[in-house]
Amino acid sequence: MAHEIQHGNRMLPPLPLKPPSSEMELHPTGIYTFAGASASHHPSEIDTPKSLGDGGVYDDADFVTQTDPQTQQCSSTEKNNNMEMQKAYSSSQAAKGKDSRKMHMFFLYGMMITCFLMLAAVIFLFLTKYSAVSEELKELHLNNTEMTTTVLKGLDDIRTKQDIIQKSLRNDLTELQGIIAFLCKHMSISYSACPPKWRARENACYYFSSNTKTWSESLSYCAGQSAHLASVESDEEQAFLRDSISTKGTHWLGTTDIERDGKWRWSEDDKLVTISFWDIGEPKKGYNKDCGIMYPNGSWAADACSLPYHWICKKRLIC
């Protein structure tokens, strides 16, 4: 029977077996390998080509050896050592990777903490600055409020004193006019003539404008003529004014409630209006209608002082 012998990955042709001779017997025990292996062999365990028979042709370098168990143990130990070294290397690489990741995580956490601290510092500085600016603004506002209050109080005092002076002058002028009228009547002194374009009635002259102005502008014009916006003191005077403007449109009168809403007074002497000829529903409260007008039919109404109308000036005559 022929046996195939494996040498590495190459299969050798089967060796012819020869019956054992009396001179030497083959011992088919153990594992046969080709010569050239790195393992050592015992001389008694080596079978020469002659002992295997004369039928085959073999290379001088090829001879069969039996593997030593100690060699197998050394190979296994070497393999185990290699595997352990590979495992140790893998473990060291894994440990280095873990250490690297830990370092990256620590660096990232450090950066996050640093950014958070910087943000907290910026917010703290902003709040501190905002608080300081708010306090300064409060102080400025209080100072401004105090100054405004002081100025307004001073203006109110000035207006009050001015009103007192104006009322005193009006009273003095009224008394003076009364004295002059009494003297002219009892001394039979005739009144002086009215200026050109003015119309005379009893002891007064009246001017009816041909153009239009606001209430304040009309008042200033009359003051420049030593006169006032017309006041109405009787039914006869009302009729005279109505007939004079019947074909000329709406005219300003000297009545107003600018100083106190609803309290209508004459601009000439600041006296309350006692005789009035208001139209139905007039004077209307609110709507900034603080100045009096006379319609062409003679009825009165309240309107905005900024509107342009004709006007009537009234000047009292002195004998």
Task: Report on this structure.
- With 319 residues, the chain is α+β, with helices and mostly antiparallel strands.
- The chain has three domains: 3-67, no CATH class; 80-189; 199-316, Mannose-Binding Protein A, subunit A (Mannose-Binding Protein A, Chain A), CATH 3.10.100.10.
- The protein contains three helices and twelve strands; from the N terminus they run ββββαββαβαβββββ.
- Strands 5, 6, 7, 8, 9, 10, 11 and 12 form an eight-stranded mixed β-sheet that branches.
- A hairpin with a 2-residue loop joins strand 5 (199-201) and strand 6.
- The N and C termini lie far apart (178 Å).
- Residues 1-9 and 17-65 have low confidence and may be disordered.
Tally of helical runs = 3
Low-confidence stretches: 1-9, 17-65
β-strand amount: 15-25%
Q: Spell the H/E element sequence.
A: EEEEHEEHEHEEEEE
Distance from N terminus to C terminus (CA atoms, Å) equals 178 Å
Helix content: 40-55%
Structural class: alpha+beta
**CATH level 4 superfamily of the largest domain:** Mannose-Binding Protein A, subunit A
What distinguishing features does this structure have?
319 residues, alpha+beta, Mannose-Binding Protein A, Chain A, 3 domains, 8-stranded mixed β-sheet, two-stranded antiparallel ribbon, 16% strand, rod-shaped
